[in-house]
Predict the structure.
Amino acid sequence: MSHSHELSPHPTAAFQPILRPLALAVLLAIGGLASPTSSQAQGAVETQAEQDTRLGTVTVNARRREESAQEVPTPISVLGGEALESQRIYRVQDLQQLVPSTNVAYVHARQSSISIRGLGNNPASDGLEGSVGVYLDNVYLGRPGMAVFDLLDVEQLEVLRGPQGTLFGKNTTAGVLNITTRKPTFTTERSVQTSLGEDGYWQTQGSVSGGLSETLAGRISAYRTEDDGYVKNVYNGDTLNGGKRQGFRTQLLFEPSETFNLRWIGEYNEEDSDNGILTLYSTGPTINGVNRYEQRAAAAGATLVSGKDRKVNFNSPQMVKVFQGGTSLEANWTLPNDFTLTSISAYRWWDFTPRNDDGLNVTAHYSAGVEVRDKQYSQEFRLASPTGGFFDYVLGAYYFKQDLDNKSFNYYGPQADTWNGTPAGALNNVTSIGNGHIDTDSYALFAQGTWHLSERLDFTAGIRGTYEEKDAWVTRNAPLGGAAVAGAAAAARQGRAGAYDSGDLSQHSFSPSGLLSLSYRFSPDLLGYATLSHGEKSGGVNLTVGAAPTLGTDSLLVGTERANNAELGLKSTLLDGRLLFNANLFWTEVSGYQANVYDEANRVQYLANAGQVRSRGLELESTWQPLRGLTLNANASWNDVRYTEYEDAPCPPEVSFANPAATCDLTGHQVVGASKYIANLNGEYRWQLENRIEPYVTASYAFRSRAVGTIDDSEYGQIPSYALVNLSAGVRGDYGDGRWDASLWLKNAGDKTYFTSLWNSANGGYAGVLGTPRTLGATLRYDF
């Protein structure tokens, strides 16, 4: 959890020569970077020294009310906008460096997912929602890729762990990422910021807010980010995995009285990049002296380069284009007797267009990928009772509609048969086009209430009932091009690129969610809680043909994922408000876990129910302000996430290549992408000079242990452990009516080469997503 503290401009001079070197020594020893958030002033009259070392109150909306985070009996990490800005965290995929039990698998906007406690590593299924719900200003985002834009003008970001279905719009089995942007203000606020860095990095963002009349305020924010990338293409000397992103957000806030407000938001984001680069991680097993990946690459005339050198050898363009936008209208009425009625209406759209190379410097595929066109509508009503009595509650209704179309394409080249191992003429120069469509209608009623059984003891119960209808179809056109073939070659062409029509597919499901929680305040500074919760995530449809021609239409359908969770935790405020320490134990049992499966025979990846999973662990979070100007954060998690039942699982190539008829049992194996140990240390030290000049130094250390890279748990597809160090130093001061801030920063100071996720490739190989290399940059900001 993150906190900030407003500093006095005049430190206690007598202790300054002692405290400053001591603080720097502690900071360097710990290697931390502060993640401060907004704070509220302490009401009591205290000495200046006490005020300077007390942590502020962090307000969250985890239970659809504004509450202190330390009062909410659920595991939650909070990052304020100031924390994100000071650490140069502008993308969702970098959040895993700040919070425990969280992983972001990212290739590009479509191939992205967020997992919490090892649950949710299931990207790129267009006909299925994620296990972690993502919300932007109280609006659920139906595609994980809708959150893959620069985090612009963010007020606060909350990560809630465990099932959260009873109060949030869509059922979630793993957790929630809740993003809140800054609202319009009636007082004038302006900010502009520019950053320059290595590899052509340049980002500019700005915002302006103020009153348009006595009852109407507005805010507009915009950004543009460019970078060249950091993966070298030895084929033509280009640098890849960079590009341009830009967007804006406009808002109006209407407050005609103290009992009513209306907030309108409209936003737009776009990306034109060559992101999505998968580099060669491993060529897989060598069996009887033959490595299939290397053998077929050599036969096709390809020259392989290692991704561990941050290099690729592509002869075709790589491209990603994303256009998205949305609008929402949130109204809040304070009714008689202090009831609050909230209405949130929203519409969003998301268009994604890729062009992907085959990873070789010869043409097995000219291009392959999946285009997506998505529209969603949502409406939520909530009624919140007044607080302060024996019983308070929140109840409401929710409707969500999604209309999604995709187009899968594969333009095979002249080396397709050699690379794919198909009979001569089967795939060479063949074009295959498929289409998918799904309509989703989701209806829900929910309620959660808290009984204050005594001054110290609270009991909370919540329930949500969700009914969903999904109607879909998947087709593939007859193949075009290629030579006339017969026999084995014709059969291979039909299997990989033949015409297919699933007919009408439909799913109807009722998914209940529930919560029972007991919390007890042992003292004003110590809260303990125990929670039982149940969450369900509805099934869906694989919107590409995949293995359906051989495995049947049922392989297109994905069943419901269900999670039962038990939680035991405490939240404490110690050392006279200078130390926050929170800890929790959890145990989650998941049935019907939805995970990616790779079909080597058809060279396709699709989602299926992977049996049962158990996730258990311990999470720790602390924030300490030992002395004035120094804030230290530490969080860590131990996650033991394993399949408790997964028979007939996909076999790794070292097994399937040696025995194609083999079947594998992954029961007891670690779940994909789930590091057992995660630790993040961060801290900041800042001090005051004359004329309100404020220097500061920051640092961070983020560690993740080894993780399984792909579902087959191949020894050739393991993600090694890695640790990252980020550093920065800067100075702030006054100029005119504003406040300036200039800083130097260094990301990945050790220039660690690391992989954030792995993917199955053809012929038993594995491709990986590289993390960013060492990057030196500077930022200049002015708030006025």
